[in-house]
Amino acid sequence: MIDPTDEPLSVSLDMDLTWRYAAGDAMTRFLEDVGRGRLEASRCDVCGRRYLPPRPFCGMCRVRIDGWVAVEDTGVLEAWTVVHLPIRDGRTGEMRPSPYGMGLIHLDGADTSLNHYLDTAEPERLTIGARVRAVWRRDRRGAMDDILHFEVLS
Amino acid sequence: MIVQGSIRLSFTYAAGRIGSRFLVGLRDSRVILGAHCSRCALVVCPARAFCPVCSTGMDDLREVGPGGTVEVWSTVPGRGTYGMIRLDGADTALVHRLLGDAGLWEPGARVVARFAAKRIGSITDIEGFERGEP
C-alpha cells in the first residue's frame, strides 16, 4: 500500500571506471606510427586483407599477421551520425562537446573501416560515399586521438 | 604500449516505495529496516518490495540491528574493508563497510552500526559497522 506520508527518494551514484590495457604488438606499432603522423595497416600474407586498425591475426584465415602496408589518411565515409546527447569521452574522461560526428571511414589502401570522429562544421556535407581526410593534432603522442577528426574534402 | 583512460558513469534510480522507507528510516530515525515476508517469514535487509525466496509482495517493515554478525569480509587495497553483515533479526546479509583495523576480521565477529552525523537518505547514512555490541 502507498502511504501518503511516503517520501519518494532516489539514489544517485558516480562511478569512475578507470581502464588500462596492453595494446599488444600490432596496436603498439600502429600507435607509434600514428604519433609520427603515419598510418599502416597489418596485411595478411594468405588472403591479402589489410586491417586498419591493425589486427595481429587474420579473422578470415586464422593466421598470424606479420606484414604491414602504408595506408593513406584519406578515405570514403561508409556510415555516419551526428551525436547531440553530450557524453563523457571514454578516452579522456571529459565531457565531449556536442554535437559531434562519428563515422566509419574506409581509408584508401585498407580493407576494413575505422571508427572515428567527424568534423560537423558543415553537417550537410556528411554523406555516405563522401571523400574525407584526417585532421591531425599538432602535438601527437601516439594515441588514436592524434587524429582530431575527419573532414569532408571539397 | 599501455592504453588507458577513465569513464565516469553518473546514474540515478528511484529507490521505490520500500527502498525509500528504508532510506528515510536511516536518515530520520537511525533505524535499519528489514522487510518481513508474510508467506515464508523471511526478514530481508535492506528492505525490499518483494521476497527474494517466494516473490511475495512485502509491506511489513521491521527494525533490525543495529547489532549484527559478520558473515564474510574482504579488504580492498586503498578502499577499506567490506563485509556481509547479518543484522540481528534479519535473515539476509547487508553489504557494508567494516570500520577499524583491516585484516583483523573473522566470520562471526559481532559488530554494530555507526551512523553518520549528517544523514541525507543514503546507504552511506550508515558510515559502517564497528566491532561491538549495541
Total strands of chain A: 9
Oligomer: heterodimer
Q: Which protein chains make the most extensive interface, counting residues with beta carbons within 8 Å of the other chain's beta carbons?
A: A-B, 31 and 25 residues
- Helical content class of chain B: 10-25%
How far is the N terminus from the C terminus of chain A? 65 Å
- Let me know the average pLDDT of chain B: 93
Annotation field: number of helices of chain A = 1
Question: What would you report as the Rg of chain B, rounded to the nearest angstrom?
Answer: 16 Å
Return Rg of chain A in Å: 20 Å
Strand content of chain A: 35-45%
How does the helix and strand content of chain A classify structurally? mainly beta
Q: Low-confidence runs of chain B (pLDDT<50, min 5 residues)?
A: none
Shape, per Cα inertia axes of chain A: globular
Can you walk through the features of this model?
- The complex is a heterodimer of chains A (154) and B (134).
- Chain A has one helix and nine strands; from the N terminus they run E-H-E-E-E-E-E-E-E-E.
- Chain A has one helix spanning 24-35; strands spanning 10-22, 39-43, 50-51, 67-71, 74-83, 100-107, 113-118, 131-136, 147-152.
- Chain A starts with 9 loop residues before the first strand and ends with a strand.
- The mean pLDDT of chain A is 92.
- Chain B is mainly beta.
- Chain B is built from one helix and nine strands.
- Chain B has one helix spanning 16-29, and strands at 2-14, 32-36, 43-44, 60-64, 67-76, 80-87, 93-98, 110-115, 126-131.
- At the A-B interface, strand 1 and helix 1 of A face strand 1 and helix 1 of B.
Question: How do the helices and strands line up, and which of them pair or pack?
Answer:
The complex is a heterodimer of chains A (154) and B (134).
Chain A: E1 10-22, H1 24-35, E2 39-43, E3 50-51, E4 67-71, E5 74-83, E6 100-107, E7 113-118, E8 131-136, E9 147-152
Antiparallel strand pairs in A: 2-3, 2-4, 5-6, 5-8, 6-7, 8-9
Chain B: E1 2-14, H1 16-29, E2 32-36, E3 43-44, E4 60-64, E5 67-76, E6 80-87, E7 93-98, E8 110-115, E9 126-131
Antiparallel strand pairs in B: 2-3, 2-4, 5-6, 5-8, 6-7, 8-9
